[in-house]
């Protein structure tokens, strides 16, 4: 029994230091330096949370920009890829349904990110090309000029990697909120 006691003390000390103390230090630092991000980047409107900047939501109305497809059905608790191979009939069917939903045509090809789910299935961003591809539908549904919708897209588009990854993306939730503020 005496040989177990030192091991037990070491286990308890390690648990207290590595789990509780380290966790408290990291949480305290995050809450001090970046509280919005540390709390999930929750967007609040009229005093109630409407979503996170970090997790896609399934917008389906024509007046809204649609996100990328989600293998997790937009459930933040189940972030995952589909693990379906490119030759999978189920994946081909989902892609065909998505292309049909967008009414894509050979002379108006759909950007790949609007057809393919992200690795985690919850990417809240679409490419600038994906946003511009949807601008006409959204503008028509809202009764706005396409130029006005494109101006909002351009204002919100950003390059997450700066000069190292210059392709611009747009957060779908923030884009839809900005258009809702226009009042149509």
Automatic annotation (TrEMBL):
It is found in: Cell membrane. One of its GO terms (cellular component) is plasma membrane. GO terms for molecular function: ATP binding; P-type potassium transmembrane transporter activity. The system is composed of three essential subunits: KdpA, KdpB and KdpC. PANTHER family: POTASSIUM-TRANSPORTING ATPASE C CHAIN, POTASSIUM-TRANSPORTING ATPASE KDPC SUBUNIT. Part of the high-affinity ATP-driven potassium transport (or Kdp) system, which catalyzes the hydrolysis of ATP coupled with the electrogenic transport of potassium into the cytoplasm. This subunit acts as a catalytic chaperone that increases the ATP-binding affinity of the ATP-hydrolyzing subunit KdpB by the formation of a transient KdpB/KdpC/ATP ternary complex. This is Potassium-transporting ATPase KdpC subunit. Coiled coil: none annotated.
């Amino acid at each position: 029994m005496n040989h177990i006691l030192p091991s037990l003390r070491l286990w308890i000390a390690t648990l207290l230091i590595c789990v509780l103390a380290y966790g408290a230090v990291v949480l305290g630092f995050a809450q001090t330096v970046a509280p919005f991000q540390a709390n999930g980047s929750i967007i609040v409107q009229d005093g109630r949370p409407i979503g996170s900047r970090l997790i896609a939501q399934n917008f389906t109305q024509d007046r809204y920009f649609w996100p990328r497809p989600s293998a997790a059905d937009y459930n933040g608790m189940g972030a995952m890829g589909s693990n379906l191979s490119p030759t999978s009939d189920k994946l081909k069917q989902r892609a065909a349904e998505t292309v049909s939903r967008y009414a894509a045509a050979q002379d108006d090809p759909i950007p790949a990110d609007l057809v393919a789910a992200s690795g985690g299935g919850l990417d809240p961003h679409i490419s600038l090309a994906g946003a511009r591809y949807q601008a006409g539908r959204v503008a028509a549904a809202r009764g706005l000029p396409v130029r006005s919708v494109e101006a909002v897209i351009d204002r919100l588009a950003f390059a997450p990697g700066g000069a190292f990854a210059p392709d611009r993306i747009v957060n779908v939730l923030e884009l839809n909120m900005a258009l809702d503020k226009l009042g149509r």
